[in-house]
Design goal:
The protein contains 11 helices and 12 strands. It is of the alpha/beta class. The protein has one domain (14-336): Aldolase class I (TIM Barrel, Alpha-Beta Barrel), CATH 3.20.20.
Length: 338
């Protein structure tokens, strides 16, 4: 089958897979405790895609041009024996890169197992080095020292460089921009600053809470002179910079002020098997139903994926307005990953 292009001529290259909708953090910009409290109904285990089903989707996606897979959540390391899924994915011919995004809380004891299973790369979410700020942001009183230990474990296991993502929210953690850059300076870590996004409907997003990429770069440059770098590949979401001496690489993801929809080649698979063609989508296509039909086959799965991608015309961030940002039907980030 010829790899499909969507209605704007974009190929399918990346697939992001949520393996669970559960998380042990309650970050205020993602899973606020007021919404995801003790009585919140998370997906039942039987509703989750089985590892074999995830592998079937990936095989079909690779046949259509996907070369990179990222495992997300929720917190993906809460999914039991995730290393077995990684091992299965690593055997798929044509899949070049298997990455993981994690909050780092369980990484210290899982890093080596994941590396041995065939995981290519690790990204850790870390929004502050200040313990009080970090505990306030994760809202479960989790100490920053344990996330830093997870990053160290990933480096010791052979993941290098490790990417560290910091979501920047004005008045909450933007004072930590330079301390974060200085902390990871000279280490095999790529620190990336992410503009606070209007994902989902529960995080109380306001435009005035966004610290624009241009301001982030200006504040960093005042302390650590930066020079721009070329993208590693077409469609890379992060604007890349290096310190003047080349000892550190930084990135800025400017999805609010500098949308990158035109180069977006990512699809997202929820933990219960729904495929979304945009981070800001309202609905997804139920692949689990197709996977569990008695006569399900790989050809039918490929045909469904190709058809979904060929009709895609998503470019939410390019047409974002106060009205679209306030829509009540957008899927939550914790359900499909970042």
């Amino acid at each position: 089958m010829t790899p499909p292009l969507d209605r704007l001529g974009r190929p399918l290259r990346d697939l992001r897979i949520s393996v669970t909708d559960r998380c042990n953090f309650r970050c205020t910009y993602c899973m606020p405790k007021e919404v995801y409290g003790r009585d919140h109904a998370f997906l039942d285990r039987a509703e989750l895609l089985r590892f074999g089903e995830i592998e079937a989707v990936v095989r079909a996606a690779v046949a259509l041009g996907v070369r990179k897979v990222r495992l997300t959540g929720g917190e993906p390391l809460l999914r039991r024996e995730l290393e077995w899924l990684v091992r299965g994915l690593s055997r798929i011919e044509g899949l070049e890169d298997i990455a993981l995004t994690t909050n780092g809380s369980l990484l210290e004891r899982k890093a080596r197992l994941l590396k041995e299973a065939g995981l290519s790369r690790v990204t850790v979410s870390l929004d502050s080095l200040d313990d009080a700020t970090f505990r306030r942001m994760n809202d479960v009183d989790f100490p920053v020292a344990r996330v830093l230990a997870g990053i160290d474990a990933a480096l010791e296991a052979g993941f290098g460089p490790v990417k560290v993502n910091m979501v920047v929210k004005r008045g909450l953690n933007d004072q930590d921009l330079v301390p974060m850059a200085r902390h990871f300076y000279g280490r095999p870590v790529i620190l990336r600053f992410i503009e606070y996004m209007d994902v989902g409907t529960t995080n109380g997003w306001r435009l005035e809470d966004v610290v624009p990429a241009a301001e982030i770069v200006a504040r960093l440059t005042a302390e650590l002179p930066l020079r721009p770098l070329e993208p590693n590949y077409p469609g890379e979401v992060a604007l890349r910079y290096a310190t003047a001496d080349g000892r550190a690489e930084l990135g800025v993801i400017a999805s609010v002020t500098r949308p990158f929809c035109r180069g977006c080649h990512r699809a997202r698979l929820s933990a219960d098997g729904r495929l979304y063609t945009c981070l800001f989508a309202a609905t997804g296509f139920d692949l689990k139903r197709l996977l569990r039909e008695d006569d399900a086959d790989h050809a039918a799965l490929r045909t469904a994926l190709a058809g979904l991608w060929a009709t895609r015309a998503d470019r939410y961030s390019e047409v974002r307005t106060a009205e679209t940002a306030a829509l009540k039907s957008k899927v939550e980030m914790s359900y499909i990953g970042g």
